[in-house]
Structures are given as structure tokens and as C-alpha cells.
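FAQ
Q: What does a multi-component entry look like?
A: The components come first, one per line:
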Amino acid sequence: MTTKMLIQLKDVWKTYTMGENKLDVLKGINLDVREGDFIAILGPSGSGKSTLMNQVGALDTPTKGKIILAGRDIATLSESDLAKLRGQKIGFVFQQFNLIPTLTALENVTLPAIFQNMSEEQRIKRATKLLTMVGLGDRLHHKPTELSGGQQQRVAVARSLINNPGIILADEPTGNLDSISGKQVFAMLEKLHAEDKKTIVLITHDIHLAKTAPTIVYLKDGIIEKIEKNGKHHRP
Amino acid sequence: MKKDYITIPLKEIRRRKLRSWLTLIGIIIGIAAVVSLITLGSGLKNAIEGQFAALGNDKLFVSPKGNTFSPGLSIDAVSINDDDLKVVERVQGVRRATGFATTTGEVEFNDISRYFFVWGQSTDPEDRELIGESQNYKIGVGRVMEKGDENKVVLGWEHSQDTLFEKAVELGDNIVVQGKKLTVIGFLEKIGSPPDDRSVSIAIDTYEDLFETKGELGLLIVQTEPGEDIDVVADRVQKDLRKARGLAEGKEDFNVETPRQLGAAFTTILDILQVVLLGIAGISLLVGGINVMNTMYTSVLERTKQIGVMKALGARNRHILTLFVVESGLYGLGGGIIGAIIGIGFAKTVELLMQTFVGPAFLSISIDTSLVLGTLTFSFVVGCLSGIAPARQASKMSPVDALRYE
Ligand SMILES: Nc1ncnc2c1ncn2[C@@H]1O[C@H](COP(=O)(O)OP(=O)(O)OP(=O)(O)O)[C@@H](O)[C@H]1O
Ligand SMILES: [Mg+2]
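Then the predicted structure of the entire assembly, as C-alpha cells:
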């Protein structure tokens, strides 16, 4: 396989220090995210999934180890370069939707594009298209409080796509949704992977959903227990 | 800067209506105070300068020291008299000089007795004209005092109303001044200050009989020859009068003043007053600024998660900083706009009240656009400055920590 490497974690450790106590949350993680991957991360609560996702998304820096994003070690990047890279290359979808309450669906979707200086005309055109794609073409001017949970999460998916990133990172995107809305959102991510060739990294508790992913990473106590690809088992 | 960095904070401000109003109060009060004080102050200054300018630039005033230019407010130990008048009349460059005496006297009408300022003045037409010009009054009804009018009286405007004696005095009525019955021959036009509008003017000879004075004058009014430099003439008057009264230089017991100096004395007092009041308004603005800062800190804390989300979506530190500083600046600007409107409204109301109850010439304000724009800019800057520290705190948050915040 000669697919392009997007994000590479090399022996990543994350240690939280609280007074006297040290807590190793990630203990030497090695993970490659390549173009076109669809990775589901599975693991018990507290195993470090979100912490890992924050490392993958360059929201946080490791205590030890290296993270290579778009060919560059993130430790060498300035805050503003990192923010720019994050804004351009990665789209985030969160469990709690995290829409800005004062902004309409359309404005929420355009927000990341403002930080990348996209022109207003282009932003609105793209955002309208994306919202229509997620089935919310008739809810453009609704505030988050005027939308159902499933609709809010679809707005969040549209928002993650506005800057046309290669990778979508989704931390339990279906965790706060009923099963039907959850399936809709999951199907949407699968479609983005299959048709738009987006790379997807997804955290989920739902084993049935995870099983449909081509790659499954099992995390336990900050260690990758196993990586399952297309049903085949790989020991790290 | 793109307009999004204004519209997004604006939506935030609009969302928390009550808190936004409370935040604005300090700035509103401060700016309202600044705008109304400056507007009223300069209106008053203009009015005063206008009054003194109306005197013309050919008149000097000589008064006993300790006496300000308020007609006979106090009878000083020092007095100016007929002899001084004669000295002044002979000074080179003086065209004419006259004087008048003034004191409080008992006035009786309609079986009511009250005390008012009584003026004794020359009945010579030219002297009378000079006094009329210098005191800014004109006859409104009836006629002026003439030679041989020893038993006549001219009254201030308010006597023609029923407010002083329960009944309006009319032309031809008799009133009793210090026990002497005098016939009313005229009323002055409304001037706007109660001492003037309640004045009682009689011939100087009658005045001297009634108050048992001889030659004493409260104020000399000196008119210079056309083309003479008023300040040069003022110096000469000062010098000659000093000599005649046998005083050393610097030890004068009298003042020689030009209208410009008189006006300046008033406006200086006004300036000092204005600086003090503006200082108080400044404190209110400072408190307003701190208020905005407090709101911004609360706001940053409340929106910690939102800041984390924005950072995850690619917002750089300076984007966050801009959003919060602008939000804070908008509080300042909003408070400034509302404050300026209230301040102008207040100044206009005071003007209207003054013009209705005191007189049209008393106060005339004009809205100074550069003042308004200046205060708006200032309030915006105060808002921005108050927001810098909270905004820096927001911009420096780590994205993960901010995202975890509940
Ligand atoms: N800022 C922090 N300071 C201290 N400990 C932290 C911090 N962030 C996370 N942890 C700890 O790290 C561990 C892993 O947390 P993480 O959120 O990654 O778990 P998770 O696998 O995502 O769990 P869940 O499925 O419940 O979301 C937890 O024990 C948590 O208490
Ligand atoms: Mg988690």
C-alpha cells in the first residue's frame, strides 16, 4: 500500500500530573492515519480515547513522543500555524455537537471558513450546499435551540466539512443521539468516506457501528490492545 | 478587519440583554455627564461671552475693590464718588463717563412691602444711554427717565407681573420707595435674571435724598473716544485715579476692567467648574470600564467551552482576542451612543427650561459633532481597553482544557 500518510503518532505518552500523583493516560501509542482510512476507536470509558483523539487532532501536545501532521512535527509549529493546519486539514465532530448558540445553522457552518479568510459569498454558497447535503436545506436560519439533537449533529458534520479537510475526527458523534439519528449520522460519515474519499477517525461505544468500520483500534488503559483490519487481526 | 468580527460579538451582546444593559450603565452615565457638561458649559460660556461682547469694545468699568461686577451686591467700605468721576472724565481718550449708585431699599405697593435693588442714575440722556448699553437693558413699556423726573420711577420687568405684589404694577401707578411716593413711567424689557427684572431705577438726586448719601457711586462706566485702544485708556484711568486718590502703585482700592476681562473672569470660573465636573464624570467612566471588564471576565469564563470549540475549528489566538476585544469595545460604543443621546437630551432640556423660566439670552447650546464623535471614539477605546485582559485570557486558553470545561 502506498497511500499517503496523514497523521502519525510515534510512541505518544500523555501524563497528567495532579499534585503528587502522576497519571499516565496514554502509554506509548503508535498509530498511522493514512489517506482513505476509516478508523473506529473502541474502548472502555476512561481508557484514553478522547485523549488520543485530541492528540490526533493536534489539539494537545504529547508529554513524550512525536506527532507528525501533514509531514511536520507539531512540536515545531507555532500556535498560529498549528491552528491554521488544524482548520484546513481536520474537521471535528463532537459528542455534544458544540454549535455556537447565538449563530444560525448557516452561520455555524461558515464559522471555520471565517478563520481561513474564505470570502463571504463562497462561504455561504458552500455552507448552503453542505447543509442541503445533510438534509437541512430548509433549516438554514434556525438557531441550535430550534433544532433537534440529530439535526444539530448534522449541522456539526456540515461544519466539519466547510474548509474541505481531508480528515474528519468524530468523538462519539452518535453518543447523544437516539439510534435512528445515530445511524443517520454514521451513514453520513460512511458516505463521506466512500464517495468523497474523506479519512475518518471515529470514537464509539457502539460495537455494532464500529464493526462496520474497515479498521478498528481497541484501546485499553492507554495502550492499543489490537488493531483489526477487515476482520483480520493485527498485533501492534 | 472583516465584519464577521463585529457581527459575531454583537449577537453575543444581544443574547444577554439584561446583563448587557447593566454593564452599560456606568459608561452611559459617564458619557451622558461628559456630553451634557461640555455642551452646557460651552453654551453658558458662549452666552456670557455674547453678553460681554454686546457691551461693545469701547467701555470700561471702575468699581471699588472687593466688589465684583454684580450691580451693588455689597456696599463696601471703599467707595467711588463724584470726585473720582470728574478725574476719570478728564483722562485722555475718555469720551464720556457716568456712574450709578445702588443699594437695597424698601418698596411698598398694594399694601405689601418688599426689598429690592434700587438704582440711582443720571437723568442726562447720554449718560442714560451709556448705562442702558452697559447694563444691557432697554425700556419695554412706557418711557425712560428724563431731566426733572425726580418723582418718577422705572421698574424692572417683573413688577409688571402679579408675582411681586400680588397685583401687577401699571404705568401711572404710584409706588412708595423708602417712604417717598413715586409715579411709574416705564418698565424695562425682560432680562432674565431676577435682580435685574425686579430692579427699581430712580433719579440720582432722589436716590441721594432717600438714602442720605452724597456723591457716592457704586460703579463708573467709562466710554472711550472712537479709535482709542481700550487697554491704553484703561491704564491711564488707573494711573490718574491712583494719583488722585493718593495711592501707591499696586495698592489700588479700585478696579478698572474691560468687558473682555470681566468676561474672562466668569469663563475662568466656569472652566474650573467644568474641569471638576468632568473629573467626576471621568471617575464614572472608569467605573464603567471596570464594569465592562468584569462582564467580559464572566463572559470569557462562561464561554470557555465555546472558545475551545472555535480553536478546534481553526481559530487562532488573535481571532479569539479580536472577537472578545471587539465585544468589549461594542459595549463601550453602545454605552457611548446611548450616553451621548441622553447627554444631549439633558442639555436640550436644561436649555429649554432656562429659556422658558430665565430668559432667551441666558443659554444657547449647540451640538458639537466633533465632541460627539470624540466621546464615541473615547468610549469605544475605553471598552476595548477594558476587554484586553479578559480577551487575552480567552485567547491563551489551551484548546483541550477549554473543550473539557463544563
Ligand atoms: N486534564 C486532565 N487532567 C487530569 N486527568 C485527565 C485530564 N483529561 C483526562 N484525564 C483522565 O484521563 C483518563 C482518560 O480520559 P478520556 O477522556 O480520554 O477517556 P475516554 O476514553 O474518552 O472516556 P469516555 O469513553 O468516558 O469518553 C481519565 O481517567 C481522565 O480522568
Ligand atoms: Mg471520551
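Q: Is there any commentary attached?
A: Sometimes. For this entry: Chain A touches chain B at residues 54, 57, 59-60, 79-80, 83-84, 86-88, 92, 94, 98, 100-103, 111-112, 114-117, 120, 159, 163 (CB under 8 Å).
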